[in-house]
Specification:
Length: 433
DNA sequence: TCTGGGGTCCTAGGACCC
DNA sequence: TCTGGGGTCCTAGGACCC
């Protein structure tokens, strides 16, 4: 096969670092009795599997499999099931990403457990040594096992990483195009980064079954069949980088969505959930110094109940973009009144803020609010939010909360077996006896 | 009893303008 | 009686990711 390599004087090179079974590995750091056992971390409400140890994968438990579909295996194989503990995983992720920054100046954090290191200009002689040293450091300092894939493009680095995992190696170096051939031939099309549910069957009908089959296509053909992203994908598979590391940019949207711990019918119960979501949204907006110009709110019934699902949506636009919790709650409840219809059995509700603007960039004032009044109220609410945020940061989430979120709310998620938040709560610090 | 939650990017089509 | 064509912007929805 003939690959076109990109410009010879500055070939790109990426290392994809990916935590192995990340959530399970985070749990094992603090609970070694989980080692070598089938372990599953469940989604909120303990609904389905969102992380599986290798032992659990070997039992045939699929990603996102609902708990009840493998309940019979739990007893017979002694599977440990844990409720998710995102406070712990988020903190472990921060530590891992921070450590990775020692190895490359440009780290693109792609998800909670993955980062692309742009190592184009590092000129290492031996990338195996480099990868091994990353592996050793993360294992020693953070306690997490990782896998590293090194290749000319992000898409190939993904494939290198996946292939290394399959071979149970800590890393795979795929710097020369010919190194990639075998990995591409043994990677199923549907495992390629960017090929999902819709494209895989479409391409298979056209006789493309592996990553290799796609890599030898003409990029312009791919453009016609799959659009711009298809063209880029084929080029990436051919070793021509189309995706650089991303600049750190502001988030464009934030959503807070939860399934309820029980099915809910009453407006007031759902209003409490939405109020709690709006509070969380406010915290996140303020932390990132962002403002929401508008919100959409939804409440929906279960997709699996048998009856026709209902999904109500309501929208509220604010006079001026805001991150004030009290304003967000009022607006969200107003929007919920549009979304809610009596008579349904609701399963989840959420709130979604789009088109976020940064606090600094937003100077424009609303024409219809007298400047003095506006600034007084906004200074007052700013101080209140700051006070609540700092109390909650210091003493733990929900030390102070808004009464509209309910004292003993019925929406509360079920978490029957959540591990302690070892690294972020003083009172949950691991004890050495 | 029981089926997650949080993101980004691209595209097609409509509205609108000249 | 005749009723263009091209451009931009916005939005909803689809597809993808973890």
């Amino acid at each position: 096969m003939s690959f076109t390599v990109c410009a010879i004087n500055s070939p790109s090179l990426f290392a994809l670092v990916d935590g192995n079974n990340f959530f399970v590995s985070c749990e094992r750091v603090f609970n070694p009795s989980l080692n070598n056992k089938p372990v599953i971390v469940l989604s909120s409400n303990d609904g389905c599997a969102i992380a599986r140890s290798n032992e659990a994968k070997a039992l045939g438990i699929a990603m996102a499999a609902p708990l009840h579909t493998f309940a019979h295996l739990i007893k017979t194989h002694g599977i440990k099931t844990l409720s998710c503990n995102f406070e712990l995983y988020g903190d472990m992720s921060n530590r891992m990403m921070h450590t990775l920054q020692r190895f490359a100046p440009d780290v693109d954090i792609y998800s909670i457990d993955e980062a692309f290191l742009d190592i184009s200009r590092l000129n290492h002689n031996d990338y195996s040594l480099f990868a091994q040293s990353i592996y050793d450091t993360i294992l020693k300092h953070i306690g997490l096992p990782i896998t590293i894939g090194v290749a000319r493009t992000k898409t190939l680095a993904k494939i290198a990483n996946r292939t290394a995992k399959k071979q149970q190696k800590p890393y795979l170096i795929m710097t020369a195009p010919e190194d990639a051939t075998h990995a591409l031939q043994t990677t199923d099309l549907s495992s390629v980064w960017g090929i999902g549910r819709a494209l895989a069957p479409k391409l298979k009908k056209l006789g493309i079954y592996t990553a290799y089959d796609l890599a030898i296509k003409d990029p312009m053909w791919a453009r016609k069949v799959m659009g711009l992203s298809g063209e880029r994908l084929v080029r990436e598979l051919q070793g021509i980088a189309c995706y650089e590391n991303r600049e750190e940019t502001n988030k464009k949207s934030i959503q807070v969505t939860r399934s309820f711990g029980a099915r809910l019918k009453e407006f007031n119960d759902i209003a409490e959930a939405i109020s709690a979501h709006a509070t969380r949204l406010g915290e996140q907006l303020r932390q990132k110094r962002l403002l929401a110009p508008a919100l959409s709110v939804f409440c929906r019934t279960s997709l699996y109940s048998g009856s026709t699902p209902y999904n109500g949506i309501g929208i509220i636009a604010f006079d001026t973009p805001t991150n004030d919790t009290s304003t967000l709650i009022k607006g969200a409840l107003h929007a919920l009144r549009q979304a809610f219809q009596p008579g349904h059995i609701y399963q989840s509700a959420g709130i979604h803020a789009l088109d976020l603007v940064s606090e600094g960039a937003f100077k424009q004032k609303n024409l219809f609010i007298p400047p003095k009044k506006e600034s007084e109220t906004s200074t007052h609410s700013k101080k209140l939010n700051q006070a609540i945020d700092s109390l909650n940061q210091h003493y733990g989430k929900n030390t102070l909360f808004w009464a509209s979120s309910g004292i003993n709310p019925r929406y509360q998620v079920r978490q029957n077996n959540r591990s302690p938040r070892y690294t972020t709560r003083w009172e949950e610090l691991p004890m050495v006896r």
